[in-house]
């Protein structure tokens, strides 16, 4: 009896880090949250497949595209199933759409925010640069894996610019609340993807199939990007995101919008 | 009735499906298996003399060493030959792109590669051009397959040319190339000039049209963007908090 409880609790503790994106909106002290990231600082801890993987060396890979990408072929393995291909397709497409929106939100927010709060210039520039890096990563992956970008591209561009500009006009707190809402949704979204990808890799390994460098790299880069998004969430909360006047309403509406956009982008 | 109406619609969305293309995993099996491929490739040799017909297919069966009743493998009969021709020609483009790269001293741009690959694909129809209207008739009765194949072809050409744009231009590029290709292919069936010179000129004109429309739209967009940005900056310099 005691043994079974113990094993269940260890299993739970193995799984809970995946859900830690929920923590930021519940815990008030922002400083401590940086350590909640599931990417191991030291490679000794955490789950089984992380111990074997090499640490991520380059910040943003820019994968080759076009015919030259086909030259680095690995030893053959089984084809990906239709379900796996469908998941990868919609995951990469929605990620690109998300990063497109993120870069545009920060681009639109920066001028009004910096005009009224010049001390935020380095922070806005830093967050924008990271988002631009993520966008570039996913652009490269889409081109490499021949995935159609979302058909809603122009619509998301307009919507993201309007959201960024609108919240920036409402003031620093509202702009930060927008960041908080968006990054909360995105953190959860990326966590979900990492979970599915790890499951996929697990099942491939248990069947003795070759997993392939592409999938391992994908998990690594999504993890890294997820951590940077959660870092933005911390910055937003540090900068009084929760003092925005209709905080619940604002974040609620933006988060619902995010979920809707993710749902649509996964499909078209 | 409702489901019957819906079914072709869902098949029309097929061209929009671009599943993940893996480099570390082999591609899933194509539409034809090993036996079908051997029969169809033998049958393709009879197309110039017997056309896209069941006769070519039956001759292909006996050439490949199967009994004539093996044509039952192909419920779509002659249309399978058309599908095979489109598939084989599209797959052959992979080899063409290396030939193009080896040709010139200086590397070609994406646009030039697209044009050259389109031309080489059109030349893939050279052997069967006098029979091509039969194929077009068959394709017209299978609209979803023909649109799907056309979309796959233009996607393949842009990909092999090394185009990496993944924004709205992904759609406009493929749509315009599909239009150019379909128009030129139709023109080619009536072209009697030596070496399809007139077809080549027709294709060049279509590409030129596409380029000028594209650059006009691009210029208008640039102007609108610049003016809007400048207006915004003037307002900001006046102290308006936007």
From TrEMBL, chain A:
<dbReference type="InterPro" id="IPR011566">
    <property type="entry name" value="Ubq_synth_Coq7"/>
</dbReference>
<feature type="binding site">
    <location>
        <position position="229"/>
    </location>
    <ligand>
        <name>Fe cation 1</name>
    </ligand>
</feature>
<keyword id="KW-0503">Monooxygenase</keyword>
<comment type="subunit">
    <text>Component of a multi-subunit COQ enzyme complex, composed of at least COQ3, COQ4, COQ5, COQ6, COQ7 and COQ9.</text>
</comment>
<feature type="compositionally biased region" description="Polar residues">
    <location>
        <begin position="70"/>
        <end position="80"/>
    </location>
</feature>
<dbReference type="Pfam" id="PF03232">
    <property type="entry name" value="COQ7"/>
</dbReference>
<feature type="binding site">
    <location>
        <position position="99"/>
    </location>
    <ligand>
        <name>Fe cation 1</name>
    </ligand>
</feature>
<keyword id="KW-0560">Oxidoreductase</keyword>
<keyword id="KW-0496">Mitochondrion</keyword>
<dbReference type="GO" id="GO:0008682">
    <property type="term" value="F:3-demethoxyubiquinol 3-hydroxylase activity"/>
</dbReference>
<comment type="similarity">
    <text>Belongs to the COQ7 family.</text>
</comment>
<dbReference type="InterPro" id="IPR009078">
    <property type="entry name" value="Ferritin-like_SF"/>
</dbReference>
<comment type="function">
    <text>Catalyzes the hydroxylation of 2-polyprenyl-3-methyl-6-methoxy-1,4-benzoquinol (DMQH2) during ubiquinone biosynthesis. Has also a structural role in the COQ enzyme complex, stabilizing other COQ polypeptides.</text>
</comment>
<keyword id="KW-0408">Iron</keyword>
<feature type="binding site">
    <location>
        <position position="131"/>
    </location>
    <ligand>
        <name>Fe cation 1</name>
    </ligand>
</feature>
<keyword id="KW-0999">Mitochondrion inner membrane</keyword>
<keyword id="KW-0479">Metal-binding</keyword>
<protein>
    <recommendedName>
        <fullName>5-demethoxyubiquinone hydroxylase, mitochondrial</fullName>
        <ecNumber>1.14.99.60</ecNumber>
    </recommendedName>
</protein>
<feature type="region of interest" description="Disordered">
    <location>
        <begin position="32"/>
        <end position="80"/>
    </location>
</feature>
<comment type="pathway">
    <text>Cofactor biosynthesis; ubiquinone biosynthesis.</text>
</comment>
<feature type="binding site">
    <location>
        <position position="232"/>
    </location>
    <ligand>
        <name>Fe cation 2</name>
    </ligand>
</feature>
<dbReference type="GO" id="GO:0046872">
    <property type="term" value="F:metal ion binding"/>
</dbReference>
From TrEMBL, chain B:
<keyword id="KW-0831">Ubiquinone biosynthesis</keyword>
<comment type="function">
    <text>Membrane-associated protein that warps the membrane surface to access and bind aromatic isoprenes with high specificity, including ubiquinone (CoQ) isoprene intermediates and presents them directly to Coq7, therefore facilitating the Coq7-mediated hydroxylase step. Participates in the biosynthesis of coenzyme Q, also named ubiquinone, an essential lipid-soluble electron transporter for aerobic cellular respiration.</text>
</comment>
<dbReference type="InterPro" id="IPR012762">
    <property type="entry name" value="Ubiq_biosynth_COQ9"/>
</dbReference>
<dbReference type="InterPro" id="IPR013718">
    <property type="entry name" value="COQ9_C"/>
</dbReference>
<dbReference type="GO" id="GO:0005743">
    <property type="term" value="C:mitochondrial inner membrane"/>
</dbReference>
<dbReference type="GO" id="GO:0006744">
    <property type="term" value="P:ubiquinone biosynthetic process"/>
</dbReference>
<comment type="pathway">
    <text>Cofactor biosynthesis; ubiquinone biosynthesis.</text>
</comment>
<keyword id="KW-0446">Lipid-binding</keyword>
<dbReference type="GO" id="GO:0008289">
    <property type="term" value="F:lipid binding"/>
</dbReference>
<keyword id="KW-0496">Mitochondrion</keyword>
<protein>
    <recommendedName>
        <fullName>Ubiquinone biosynthesis protein</fullName>
    </recommendedName>
</protein>
<dbReference type="Pfam" id="PF08511">
    <property type="entry name" value="COQ9"/>
</dbReference>
<keyword id="KW-0809">Transit peptide</keyword>
<feature type="domain" description="COQ9 C-terminal">
    <location>
        <begin position="145"/>
        <end position="212"/>
    </location>
</feature>
<comment type="similarity">
    <text>Belongs to the COQ9 family.</text>
</comment>
């Amino acid at each position: 009896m005691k043994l079974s409880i113990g094993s269940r609790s260890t299993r739970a503790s193995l799984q809970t880090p995946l859900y830690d994106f929920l923590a930021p909106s519940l815990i008030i002290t922002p400083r401590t949250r940086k350590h909640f990231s599931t990417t191991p600082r030291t490679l000794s801890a955490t789950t089984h497949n992380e111990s074997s993987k090499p640490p991520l060396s380059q910040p943003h890979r820019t994968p080759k595209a076009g015919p030259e990408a086909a030259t680095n072929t690995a030893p053959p393995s089984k084809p990906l199933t239709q379900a796996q291909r469908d998941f990868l397709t919609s995951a990469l497409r929605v990620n690109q759409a998300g990063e497109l929106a993120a870069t545009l939100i920060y681009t639109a927010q920066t001028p009004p925010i910096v005009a009224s709060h010049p001390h935020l210039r380095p922070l806005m520039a830093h967050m924008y640069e990271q988002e631009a890096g993520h966008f570039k990563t996913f652009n490269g992956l889409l081109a490499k894996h021949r995935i159609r970008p979302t058909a809603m591209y122009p619509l998301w561009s307009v919507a993201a610019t309007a959201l960024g500009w609108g919240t920036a006009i409402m003031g620093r707190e509202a702009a930060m609340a927008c960041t908080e809402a968006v990054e909360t949704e995105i953190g959860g979204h990326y966590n979900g993807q990492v979970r599915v990808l790890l499951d996929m890799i697990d099942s491939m390994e248990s069947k003795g199939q070759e997993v392939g460098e592409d999938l391992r790299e994908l998990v690594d880069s999504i993890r890294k990007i997820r951590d940077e998004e959660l870092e933005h969430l911390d910055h937003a909360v540090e900068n009084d995101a929760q003092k925005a006047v209709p905080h619940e309403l604002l974040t609620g509406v933006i988060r619902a919008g995010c979920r809707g956009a993710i749902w649509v982008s996964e499909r078209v | 009735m409702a489901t019957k109406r819906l079914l072709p619609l869902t098949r029309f969305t097929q061209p929009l499906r671009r599943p993940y293309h893996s480099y570390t995993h082999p591609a899933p099996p194509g539409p034809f298996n090993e036996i079908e491929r051997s029969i169809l490739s033998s049958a393709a040799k009879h197309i110039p003399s017997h056309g896209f017909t069941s006769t070519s297919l039956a001759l292909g069966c006996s050439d490949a060493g199967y009994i004539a009743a093996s044509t039952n493998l192909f419920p779509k009969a002659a249309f399978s030959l058309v599908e095979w021709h489109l598939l084989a020609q599209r797959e052959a483009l992979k080899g063409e792109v290396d030939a193009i790269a080896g040709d010139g001293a200086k590397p070609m741009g994406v646009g030039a590669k697209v044009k050259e690959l389109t031309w080489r694909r059109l030349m893939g129809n050279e052997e069967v051009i006098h029979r091509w209207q039969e194929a077009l008739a068959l394709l017209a009765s299978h609209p979803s397959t023909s649109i799907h194949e056309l979309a796959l072809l233009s996607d393949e050409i842009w990909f092999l040319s090394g185009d990496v744009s993944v924004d709205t231009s992904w759609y406009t590029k493929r749509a315009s190339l599909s239009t150019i290709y379909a128009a030129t292919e139709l023109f080619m069936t009536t072209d009697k000039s030596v070496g399809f010179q007139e077809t080549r000129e027709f294709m060049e004109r279509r590409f030129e049209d596409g380029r000028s429309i594209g650059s006009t739209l691009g210029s208008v967009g640039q102007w609108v963007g610049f003016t809007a940005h400048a207006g915004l900056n003037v307002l900001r310099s006046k102290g308006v908090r936007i």
